[in-house]
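Journal club side-thread
Mid-discussion, someone asked how the predicted structure for our own chain would compare to the paper's figures. Pasting it here so we can look after the session.
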Amino acid sequence: MKTPILIVEDESIVSMEIESYLSSLNFSVIGIANNAKSAYELALDYKPHIILMDIKIKGEIDGIDAATKILNELNTSIIYLTAYCDEETVGRAIKTNPSGYLTKPFNKKELFASLRIAAYTYEKNKKDLILKKGDLIFDDEFSYDTKNSQLIHYCEYIHLTKREVQLINLLIKSKNSIVSIYEMENEIWPDKAPNESTRRALVSRLRSKIKYKFIETIPSFGYRINI
């Protein structure tokens, strides 16, 4: 299987040269993006193993911020391609744990070495992530570690607030059965009754973190998690 790679580069000549070189190495270029929005969408659609990320790209956010956003959603290896190597830029890049940082103009040997490292890193991370799965399986994307109250999405931990943890634990305790509004409010706000907007906001926040799956509203009565 050819290793899928996404190129993020806003200079078309440079991106075409890189694409041609990658093809000669038997890599599969799944797309070329010139801005963060396009890069994010292509990454989530095609899940490349490696992303060649130019730092100075078109749009409101640069390549480092784009990489951070993508890495929050999926496992991939980042190789930065840039003309900038100042301390601030390198410091920001390091926080994303890249597999490579090549300054332009770079040569093909340097790129090849970085690609080998990135491919190895991807496979290693993949093996490590397989081990990170909760004991309660929601679907192919989500699972839950009931012992440690951790929501896991594609082997990545999703941060939950204290009340979000209380809510999901309550729903899981009665999974596939209805939890009444009274039971929910008494469990999460035992000392004072919340107003309706507070309760709805909590449910909405949790729903957004599980991509609006699983939680069903039972009108005028309560909620149910279907797993």
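Post-session note: The chain has eight helices and twelve strands.
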